[in-house]
């Protein structure tokens, strides 16, 4: 596997993509797992999925399976799902509520803070120090109503690598804060098992050159997307609703209650940002759509997409179907394109890669970041 150097573009010229092997080679995927997913802050669980102390969910981050839970004080906690005795998975249920985690092999038992609290014959084994043999803790943060984790031994600064990145990226959007994402409520979640490399999904999300071809419903709502440019800035994109469009819905009909703090220029506008390595956020006047990607193999990615609305909208059972339908269709169209692109990555015709047209040039910044991050000497920072 060759770590390649991308060349600077001539204005208006084509730029090279990564070569095909980046999208299917298990060796590349192994490097990505080790140096990106296991070293970056990853957005894993919506806070409401763990509403009460003891609620837990298993998630896969890189090669590691983690238990995400809340302790008795309601604080988010994350642990490697590996028993400190002989390594069995301590928790074998996908999600639920627990007062403690007991390993099914020899019954070592851990509390919600990961502390070893019981083991058979513990009093006869003075070497087994309860404080030393707790579950291995993983760094945790809560932000935007989601729980983020980092499995690195020395996690990079969340402020610099996630918040700093977003502030940079949302420069034009200004005010992700206006959407109050952390106060919104989950209205709908749809999961997609996509048979494509995770980078194809990110690259697809970063450009709208394909919008006119595959997104008729979206371009009806945001006509400027049909020209393929999408008011695209370096790393994020936005678009204004068409004249007759009342809301970000599958048929352009009115949506639900608008978010109260959005600025006037956000009132009929769509904004999208990516937070490396696994989050996309779409913001429209009455809801926010959050995608979390979990790469599960070189050619497979599990995506969970959440539609978030004002709590009243969800609690009162307002009709969100048309809002959900629009981006569910967009997702299906995008993921179908990614799945039909995946086989081409292994063609000998793509051994040297393909081309980025000028409207896609910002994708090369993602490629540069990827190469830098998985290079042998890289200090991975996402
Ligand atoms: Fe967990 Fe033995 S492996 S108690
Ligand atoms: Fe798309």
From TrEMBL:
Protein name: Rieske 2Fe-2S family protein
Domain Rieske: 43-149
PANTHER family from the UniProt entry: CHOLINE MONOOXYGENASE, CHLOROPLASTIC (PTHR43756)
Species, as recorded: Naumannella halotolerans
Lineage top rank: taxon: Bacteria
Cofactor(s) essential for the protein: Fe cation
Alphabetically ordered keywords of this record: 2Fe-2S, Iron, Iron-sulfur, Metal-binding, NAD, Oxidoreductase
Entries under Pfam families matching the protein: Rieske (PF00355), Ring_hydroxyl_A (PF00848)
Entry GO MF terms: 2 iron, 2 sulfur cluster binding; iron ion binding; monooxygenase activity; oxidoreductase activity, acting on paired donors, with incorporation or reduction of molecular oxygen
InterPro entries given in the database record: ARHD_Rieske_2Fe_2S (IPR015881), Rieske_2Fe-2S (IPR017941), Rieske_2Fe-2S_sf (IPR036922), Ring_hydroxy_dOase_asu_C_dom (IPR015879), Rng_hydr_dOase-A (IPR001663)
